[in-house]
Every structure is written in structure tokens, then in C-alpha cells.
Design brief:
alpha+beta; OB fold (Dihydrolipoamide Acetyltransferase, E2P); 2 domains; 21 strands; 36% strand; elongated
């Protein structure tokens, strides 16, 4: 089972151009900043938005191809969708919500209710069959929405931020349940999320979309080890610089030079972990190979560590202890010197 989507679509200022090939039995997490086109991609696959160009094929069956005049409406696509706000019908019971998709496809009421009841048992909510959405917790509503999507026996399951509406205390339990249910689904599984924890817990591969384009894809380890965009670097929590490298020294567009122990030539990225950045009140002795003057713009406390944002020749985020903040008097506007060992700079081709 394979979903082969070549989606080109323009909505307002968004120009989406994404190619995606996804086999069954694998969960792909689609990540990206707000407005990147993640949800639009899902809506195109579901048939809620027709593509302007390209084609969407599932197991060789064309679902959308404007060049051939093919467009299969959403209700005729073997696709289940779990929306961010679940979209349960407030006037229907949990049982009737799960049965709705089956009834919409022409199944007799008694059989639809029987199957819906079986799915409620599968997601552990058999005793909530008569409850309306207003009587359900966020986690229960999420499971009802998942049961409704799976009850129609889809070949593709689309989950758009399925955990976003949950509070922090509920997320871990629901995430664990969702991982179990996804593992039992043999079709194509696509997940939109902003949370890297969801991607770590639920996905086999990730697809990074920015400004309507795929900028990086692979396993989460591959993507996070060598980020190729500012968004991914921020997601991972590292400093990312781009420039041209020669014999281990990368020169950025602003003219800054960063020395690494890695030997790379040509267009390259440089990654510096925040904990590798040392801060000093004056020019440090010994002249480390990477030394830059900077000004503090922001100071954020994170548990027992503090993240210090710096602007200067090389913009950086440093991670230091609360004691270092006090000793150096770090606050916005304070001038410091930042150093990084060459062995702490990772270079790789752009």
C-alpha cells in the first residue's frame, strides 16, 4: 500500500509544492512552522481542497489529477481524518459519532451501530457509548474521533495535531494510547504536529515543510543530527550557521569566520550546541580559535539552566548555569565575549 502525492496548490499567499511517497505501516510526521502548508497538504490528500497541478494516487488509483479531469470527492476516498479540534457532532452520542461515517457510506443503521460499538470497545470507551461530546474529557474525545476515523476501514489515516487540544497532564497517556492504535493500523499514517515529542514518540520518519516546500526529510535522528534550516535548528535547540567552508573554516554571508575540527569544502552548515558556548566579561586569555564579541538580548531560565541569546558578528544562543548569570551580570544590553572550541563545531555539506 503506497500513497504517492505530488501536490501543487495555491491558497492566498501560500504556494504549496510537495512531493510525498509513503508506504503503509509507517507513520510519517509532518512538521513545520505556522503557515508552512502542513494542514493544506492534508486537506488536499483528503479531497477537501483540489490540487491545482500534480496528482494524488493511492495504490495505483488516481484520487486527484486535474490534467486528466479526475477528482474523487472526500466521501469516496478511503481516507480517515482526525482533526485538531476533533469535530465531533455535539448533538450525537459517542456511539452515533463513531457510526456516522459508516452511515454516510450507506451502511444499515444496525450494522453501523454494531461496528461503532466494537470500535468504542477497542479504544476503551464502551461504557461511554451514550455520552455526548460535552460529557467527555479531551482525551476521551480524541479517542472517539480516532475510532470514527478508523471505523470506515480507511487505507490512509490523517491526524492533524491530534494532541494539541490536550493539557500537559493528559498528553502522555493519550500519546501512549495513540501509539498503540497506530501500530495496529496497517495503512498509510500521516501526522501533523508542532511538538517534537509527538514526532519522537509516534513517527518512523519526519517531513519538514517550510513555505510550502519540503526542506528536509528522513528519520528524526537524521534530521536532528544535521538540521538544514533555522526552524529545525530551533526545534532541536542548536545554533545553525550557513556559509562556504574551506579546510575546516566556514565563512558566513555576514563575513564571520567559524573554525571547526571537521574538514569540509564548499557550501556548508555549522552546528554549535548552546552548552558549548562559553561567556566572558572581557576578551579571554589564550585566544581561543573562535572568539566573538556579542551583546545579550534575552535571558531565559529553563529548569537548572539558563539560555542567553546573543547578537553580534555570530548570533548565538548560549546555555549557562544560574551562577554564571549572576557572576557575569547577564541581562539584556550587557556586552560579553563568546568562545567556542573548534572541536565543538560540527560542519557538514549544505
Amino acid at each position: 500500500m503506497t500513497l504517492d502525492a505530488r501536490v501543487r496548490c495555491t491558497l492566498g499567499s501560500l504556494h504549496l509544492d510537495v512531493t510525498l511517497q509513503t508506504p503503509g505501516g509507517e507513520t510519517i510526521a509532518v512538521l513545520g512552522p505556522n503557515g508552512a502548508g502542513k494542514t493544506t497538504l492534508f486537506r488536499c490528500i483528503a479531497g477537501l481542497v483540489p490540487v491545482d497541478d500534480g496528482a494524488i494516487d493511492l495504490d495505483g488509483r488516481c484520487l486527484d489529477d486535474p490534467s486528466r479531469g479526475v477528482f474523487v470527492p472526500p466521501e469516496d476516498r478511503p481516507i480517515g481524518v482526525v482533526f485538531q479540534d476533533y469535530l465531533l457532532f455535539p448533538n450525537l452520542s459517542a456511539l452515533e459519532n463513531v457510526a456516522f461515517g459508516l452511515r454516510a457510506r450507506g451502511m444499515a443503521k444496525a450494522e453501523a451501530r454494531r461496528r461503532a460499538s466494537s470500535w468504542l470497545a477497542t479504544v476503551g470507551l464502551a461504557d461511554h457509548a451514550d455520552h455526548r461530546p460535552s460529557m467527555l474529557s479531551g482525551g476521551q474525545a480524541q479517542r472517539i474521533a480516532l475510532a470514527r476515523a478508523l471505523a470506515t476501514e480507511p487505507r490512509v489515516l490523517l491526524l492533524d495535531e491530534p494532541l494539541a487540544a490536550l493539557d500537559a497532564g493528559t498528553k502522555s497517556d493519550v500519546r501512549r494510547d495513540l501509539r498503540r492504535h497506530l501500530a495496529s493500523f496497517e495503512g498509510v499514517r500521516l501526522l501533523v504536529t508542532h511538538d517534537p515529542v509527538d514526532a519522537y514518540a509516534l513517527a518512523d520518519r519526519v517531513l519538514i515543510v517550510e513555505s510550502g516546500r519540503v526542506v528536509q526529510q528522513g528519520t528524526l535522528e537524521e534530521v536532528t543530527t544535521q538540521p538544514r534550516s533555522r526552524y529545525v535548528a530551533d526545534l532541536v535547540g542548536v545554533n545553525l550557521l550557513r556559509g562556504v567552508a574551506s579546510r575546516g573554516t566556514i565563512s558566513t554571508a555576514s563575513g564571520a569566520r567559524v573554525v571547526s575540527a571537521d574538514v569540509v569544502d564548499g557550501p556548508a552548515f555549522a552546528v554549535i550546541a548552546p552548552h558549548s558556548v562559553a561567556l566572558y566579561p572581557a576578551h579571554p586569555e589564550g585566544s581561543p580559535r573562535n572568539t566573538w564579541q556579542a551583546v545579550v538580548t534575552d535571558v531565559d531560565r529553563l529548569a537548572d539552566r539558563v539560555r542567553v541569546r546573543l547578537v553580534g558578528e555570530v548570533p548565538l544562543v548560549a546555555e549557562v548555569t544560574p551562577g554564571a548569570v549572576a557572576d557575569l551580570g547577564l541581562e539584556p544590553g550587557v556586552a560579553v565575549w563568546a568562545t567556542v572550541k573548534a572541536t565543538e563545531v560540527t560542519l557538514y555539506p549544505a
